[in-house]
Amino acid sequence: MDVIQQLREQAKKLLEEKKVDLVIGFGQGTELARTTPVFIDSPEGVSALTWGPFCANNLAKYLTDYKNAEGNVAVVVKGCDARSVIRLLDDNQISRDKVVVIGVPCPGQLEWQKVAAEVKPGASLKETADNGESFSVKTDAGDYSFNKKDYMLHRCLVCENPNPVIADITIGKELPVKTYEERFAEVSELEQKSTEDKSAYWDKQFSRCLRCYACRNVCSVCTCQICVFDQMLPMWVSKRTNLSENTMFHITRAFHVAGRCVDCGECDRVCPMDIPLRKLNQKIHKDLGDLFDSPTPGSKPGIPSALGEFSPGDPEEFM
Amino acid sequence: MLKRLLEYVGFEPGRFQARWISGSEGAKFTTTIKDMTEKIKSLGPNKKMRDDIV
Questions:
Q1: Is the CB of residue A93 less than 8 Å from the CB of residue A64?
Q2: Is residue B1 within 8 angstroms of chain A, CB to CB?
Q3: Given CB atoms, is B11 within the 8 Å cutoff of chain A?
Q4: Strand A22-28 and strand A49-50: pairing?
Q5: Is A143 a residue whose pLDDT tops 80?
Q6: Disulfide-capable partner of A306 in A227, A262, A292, B41 (CB 3.0 to 4.6 Å)?
Q7: Three-point CA angle A18, A21, A22, nearest 5°
Q8: Cβ <8 Å between B18 and A254
């Protein structure tokens, strides 16, 4: 039985047995290469659930919307999203007994724009399959094959947790975990550049920012009730969209999630201006590893946030 | 961490400094401020995140 079938059956069972009142999962979107989050509250609705290489969204974000709601919620997560769930639990944002985690081991996600550019417009999706080095996508207008190296999301190429790190129900086979030495290759490359070059690089990126706040809205660990960027009194960051304020915004955003960011890469993916936000967050991950020997937040339950805890062995460069 | 991040986005090393100085460490305070002003003077005026650059 394939993953989609199992997923639907498990969701149906959970809803029928009243173990949960809502299942949050992926549903087929209006375009072939896109999925949309679906919120299912009745057993009849489970046929809307799908799974494949187009499920890039991190659905764990929605759990915080239901934290005060009555009833339980089930959520479909990939490996990276599962780190978000752990982080939310560790931050006491959600309670464990109200959430059922349906984990699906994930072989990587394709970049939908790249796929959409190749596939015949208007074609509808029949089937997808993972062939190790590539994905095959069957449509009613022919079959396609997309090799992972060129078509996968950047973040998936150095995936740390293909298997969900927390799950009540796991669907599908566990995948081999690889370690990537070059995980921070892009960050290291940029670090080596001169101050002027680094400044010019980021000025070019930040000056394009629209301040749409999609990066903040999609972030699973941005859980503040009142966001510093929305606050008017005091106005910590001005609403003006210029290079200076945009730089302030991006440094603040990255630093606010330092030590909690689970490196799911959603901010980077949703940015309409293609600002490489993950390069900022990854710089922090690299430093956390170098200075505090801290693993990726959320990769194990109960790891304290490196910046939220003091230990006598911490480096003290400012003394 | 913040210092590293700032240098990563293109601030000059030394532009941002942080020191822990206790209330009883007057001498450390003077030397720190002296060093800091010297460093900042040698770097010249800050070019990043200024209101006059739009």
A1: yes
A2: yes
A3: yes
A4: antiparallel
A5: yes
A6: A292
A7: 135
A8: no
Reported as a single tens digit per residue, the pLDDT across A210-258 is: 999 999 999 999 999 899 999 989 988 888 899 999 999 999 999 999 9
- Contact between B49 and A283 using a beta-carbon 8 Å cutoff: no
pTM, full prediction: 0.91
Mutate to test the interface with A, among B4, B5, B9 (most CBs of A within 10 A): B9
A132: helix, coil or strand? coil
Q: What is the residue extent of each domain of chain A?
A: 3-170, 181-308
In chain A, beta strands by DSSP E: 22-28, 35-40, 49-50, 73-77, 99-103, 125-130, 134-139, 142-147, 169-170
| Binary contact (A291, B12; C-beta < 8 A) | no
Q: Does residue B32 belong to the interface with chain A, where contact is any CB pair within 8 Å?
A: no
Q: Name the pairing type of β-strands A73-77 and A22-28.
A: parallel
- According to DSSP, the β-strands at A125-130 and A134-139 are antiparallel
- Model confidence band, residue B53 (pLDDT cutoffs 50, 70, 90): low
Q: CB–CB of A15/A43 below 8 Å?
A: yes
Of A250, A287, A319, nearest to B1 by CB-CB distance is A287
CB A152 within 8 A of CB A134: no
Disruptive mutation site among B3, B4, B6, B8 for chain A (greatest number of A CBs within 10 Å) = B8
Nearest beta carbon to residue A244 from set B6, B7, B51? B51
3-state secondary structure of A73: strand
The complex scores an ipTM of 0.88
